[in-house]
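User: Hey, my collaborator sent me this sequence without any context and asked if I could get a structure. I don't really work with proteins. Can you help?
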Amino acid sequence: MQKKYKITINGREYEVVVEELEGLVGANYSQNFAPLSQVSPAQVPMQQAVPAPMPAPQAPAQSKPAPAPKPSPAPSAGGTVVSAPMPGKILKVLVQPGAQVKNGQNIMVLEAMKMENEILAPSDGVVREVKVKEGDNVNTGDTLAVIG
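Assistant: No problem. I've predicted the 3D structure and written it out in structure-token form, which is a compact way to encode the shape of the chain:
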């Protein structure tokens, strides 16, 4: 079954004949379009293609240098440093200087990305120093405590 349509493109009318093909849904086929009034190519004004304007080149974005990490105070000689494994906020400090701790004992709770992470003692010993307090923000590698 064929259907005829009139289509206007850029002010010009075209007559289009569309044939419905049964059983060929999605099949590739082409249809020729003919203008309503036959015009010879000599009568059609030719327009020269103009390339689209290109955006001006931009200088690469200047990235600011990363701020230097805060120097951590040097721990006492012979102590085991407990460092922050990730950036976050200290929620709880569970030990004080002088407390006896065992390897694997929970000594602090660090919140990072809405998760509470237990900071465990890396060895048996006595807590020599606690470098942070509840509510402090820490970065990866910051010294949290020293166990001797």
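In plain terms: Residues 29 and 105 are 74 Å apart (CA to CA). You can pass these tokens on to your collaborator as they are.
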